[in-house]
Each structure stands twice: as C-alpha cells, then as structure tokens.
Task: inverse folding
C-alpha cells in the first residue's frame, strides 16, 4: 500500500485490487510467446480482431502444450489463450483499455502500475503486466510495425499508431520503474465550434467573429498552457477555412482533423534508425511548404526556431496562417514567439524580431483551463503594431467574472466572454471580403 507523505494530503492512497496472473501461467506464457511465432514479425500488422490469426495461435498453442505434455485446467487454458492472443496480436495486459473507447489515455508506469483516463478522470486500473519483460514485449510489438527502434541506442520513442493515437515509450535506466508506455488515443470525432459553444468555451457571436477573421485571412495564434485546449481550438478555427483554399497542415504528431478536401497533411519524420538522415523537422516542413503553393499554412504548435520561419511565411504573403504557442497570456505569447524566433540562430536583433511579430500576427486567442476544470477562451486580442519598442495589444473580448471588473481576465469559472467595446482595427478587412458582422458584437 502506498502512503502519501504530502502535508496537505493525509489520506491514505489505496490502489485497486490487481489482476495478477498465477506465476505458473505467467511463466508458461513467457516461454510460449516467442515459440508461437514463425518469425518475430509474423503478426506485426495483425490485431486481436483477426480471427484467422487467433485460430492459428490457438492451434499452435495446443500442439506445443501436447508435445511438451503440459496439463492445464480449462480455466488455465483459457487464461493462457487470452493472454497470448493479446501479447501476440495486441497490446498485452492493456488490451481491454485500448479497445474501450471511453478511455482516452493509458499510462503504463512499469509492470505494476497502470493508470487510465476516462471522461476526464484519471484512475489506477486493476491491470498489471507479468513483469518487465512482458512490458518490453508489448513495447516492441508497438514499435516494430512503425519502422522504429526502441533499444538502448534509442531508449525513448514518440510515435503515431496507424489509428492516429500517439504513443510514447521510455525504457530503463532512464525510466526507473521499468519500461513506461503512454498512449493518447485519437479522438473518434473532433469537437466542433457548436460543441465548444455548448460547453461555454466561447459564445456563438465569438465563433462568428473568429470565422470572419479566418475568411479575411488574418494570421491567428492560439495561446494556452498544456492541455488547455489549444489544438482543439486550432482545429475549430481551421474548420472555417473555405473549401476552395489549399491548406497545408504541419505537425509534430498529427492531431488536426480538417474536413476540407484540399488539405495536405504533413508530419515531422524521425531520422532513419541508426543514422541521422531522413529527418524532417517542423522548420524543414514550414520552409518546404512554401514551395507547395499553399493558400494557408496551419502549424500544430510552434516550439522552436520554426517560429521565425512561420513569421516570415506570414509576412511574405501567406496570410491566413494559423498556429498555437505555449503561453499563459497574449503578452506572454508575444514574448514566447520572440524567444523562439531568436532560437533560429539567425542573429537577428530583438527589435527586428519583435517588429516581425507585430506585423505578422493579427490576432491572439488565449485558451485556458480554469480553476473549475472547464476550458475556455479567456482573451481575444488584436496585435495593433509597434509603439517605440513595444508591441501594442488590444483586447477585443475578455472572459470576466463578476468579482473581476474592468475587463481583467479571470481564471475562476462561471464568468462570461464579453466584448470590450472596441472595434478591432482590422474590421476594414472584413468588408473587403464581403463580411458583415452585426455591430452589437463589439458593444460591451
Ligand atoms: N473547450 C473545451 N471544452 C472541453 N474539453 C476540451 C475543450 N478543448 C479541449 N478539450 C479536451 O481537452 C483535452 C486537451 O485538449 P488539447 O486541445 O489537446 O489541448 P492542448 O493542445 O492545449 O494540449 C482533450 O481531451 C480535448 O478533447
Ligand atoms: Mg496540443
């Protein structure tokens, strides 16, 4: 039993009862796993739903048991079959968590501790792997079909599964509890702007405003913390891109789900195992994408010197580009973009970078996870340009609670996203694109 040492949390943590496998069965399975394969990669592309492969495994199993004169009860026989099918065709001990759509994330912290998130709540599960070797077996089954290597030379792997889910693997000695697997499932259906209005993350008026901004080809940056809903909001904002525009999406790990037809999806590529060739980073993709005749570039998240390439793309006629950045306020987003651009190593003076930001970015949309656990837009801010050495920011909408008057953004729940009473300077662009927004949108 685990006792919490934290001062605030004196409650004892009691893990759930675990589904340990009898040592006899676990030992047998360990011995049988490699023996049931004709070649190590025989079932790499198979899943537990492949009936033919299941039959093959059961047949080989029975033959082997008979040959070796191993007697099992019916219950033992069943347990061994089920476990082996999951090991050879699936994800081992976590198969049922992988199959169950209500689990969005699965975390294997070594063989004994497995957590999973269901409807936003994360709990320890009853599942366990038999031992470290069992976790490793599953880790290898995950990476092999992806043409990736997971070993002492490549002890950490970040990859995308064929169904779009993300998987991260790290092994000892870095992972102290044993091989650690983190799976983030690909959502079956992306949230729409209507969903976000229903959740109170934005209002219908604000959705209409954002649609106008996209159609009028403003460059928009979504800012927010980890898990605040940046990618989700970027996806919603991208859904406003007109059908007839050629859109390139560039991501580290493809998450965006655009429904338009003329979309080219690009993802960073790791180097060929054992070499440093074949790698494509966000920077390479952003630069390369400019030669692919894009009308729009959507970059999943700007994390490094790619910021400068993105700003240059925005400033050289690729208006209407969209991206996200990890930042806690629009002001912070500007300084993050500045820091990241300087990482590009071009030796540009800070002021040059800053003025590039001021002229490239038109709008910053701040997304946050509030204290009550809800995710909301807390500020929509216009970048108006430079005054002296400063970037001028002007809030257009602010999420405010009654306790926080004066358009100060709030992080308490139960507030409202309200207009600040100022018409953004770029509204002239709306009329150029034939968009009429009701004036009440900007009335506070
Ligand atoms: N506005 C929202 N309301 C409720 N849940 C949301 C909202 N935005 C995102 N989520 C959920 O929050 C989780 C994290 O969202 P994501 O967009 O991946 O965040 P980020 O990109 O900032 O890390 C996802 O499970 C997503 O479905
Ligand atoms: Mg994200």
Result:
């Amino acid at each position: 039993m685990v006792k919490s040492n934290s001062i605030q949390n004196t409650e004892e943590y009691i893990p759930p009862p675990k589904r340990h496998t009898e040592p006899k069965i676990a030992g047998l399975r360990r011995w049988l796993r490699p023996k049931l394969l004709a070649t190590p990669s025989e079932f790499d592309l198979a899943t537990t739903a492949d009936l033919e492969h299941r039959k093959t495994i059961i047949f080989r199993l029975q033959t082997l048991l008979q040959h070796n004169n191993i007697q099992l009860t019916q219950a033992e026989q069943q347990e061994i079959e089920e476990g082996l099918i999951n090991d050879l065709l699936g994800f081992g001990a976590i198969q049922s968590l992988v199959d169950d759509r209500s689990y969005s994330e699965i975390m294997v912290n070594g063989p004994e501790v497995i957590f999973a998130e269901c409807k936003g709540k994360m709990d320890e599960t009853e599942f366990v792997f038999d031992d470290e070797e069992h976790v490793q077996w599953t880790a290898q089954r995950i990476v092999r079909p992806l043409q990736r290597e997971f070993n002492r030379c490549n002890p950490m792997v970040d990859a995308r599964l064929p169904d779009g889910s993300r998987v991260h693997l790290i092994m000892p000695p870095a992972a102290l509890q044993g091989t650690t697997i983190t799976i983030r499932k690909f959502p079956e259906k992306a949230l729409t702007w209507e969903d976000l209005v229903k959740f109170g993350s934005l209002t219908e008026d604000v959705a209409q405003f954002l649609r106008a901004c996209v159609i009028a080809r403003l460059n928009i940056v979504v800012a927010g913390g980890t898990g605040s809903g940046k990618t989700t909001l970027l996806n919603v904002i991208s859904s406003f891109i007109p059908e007839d525009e050629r859109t390139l999406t560039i991501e580290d790990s493809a998450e965006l789900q655009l429904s338009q037809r003329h979309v080219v999806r690009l993802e960073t590529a790791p180097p060929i195992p054992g070499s440093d060739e074949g790698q494509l980073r966000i920077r390479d993709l952003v630069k390369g994408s400019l030669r692919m005749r894009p009308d729009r570039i959507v970059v999943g998240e700007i994390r490094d010197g790619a910021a400068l390439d993105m700003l240059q793309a925005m400033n050289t006629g690729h208006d209407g580009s969209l991206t996200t950045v990890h930042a806690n306020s629009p002001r912070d987003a500007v300084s993050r973009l500045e820091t990241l651009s300087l990482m590009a190593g071009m030796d540009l003076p800070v002021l040059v970078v800053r003025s590039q930001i001021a002229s490239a970015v038109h709008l910053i949309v701040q997304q946050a996870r509030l204290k009550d656990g809800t995710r909301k837009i807390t500020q929509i801010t216009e970048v108006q340009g430079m005054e002296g050495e400063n970037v001028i920011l002007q809030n257009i909408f602010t999420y405010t609670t009654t306790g926080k008057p004066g358009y100060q953004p709030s992080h308490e729940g139960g507030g409202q996203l309200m207009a600040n009473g100022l018409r953004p300077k770029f509204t002239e662009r709306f009329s150029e694109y034939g968009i009429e927004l009701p004036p009440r949108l900007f009335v506070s």
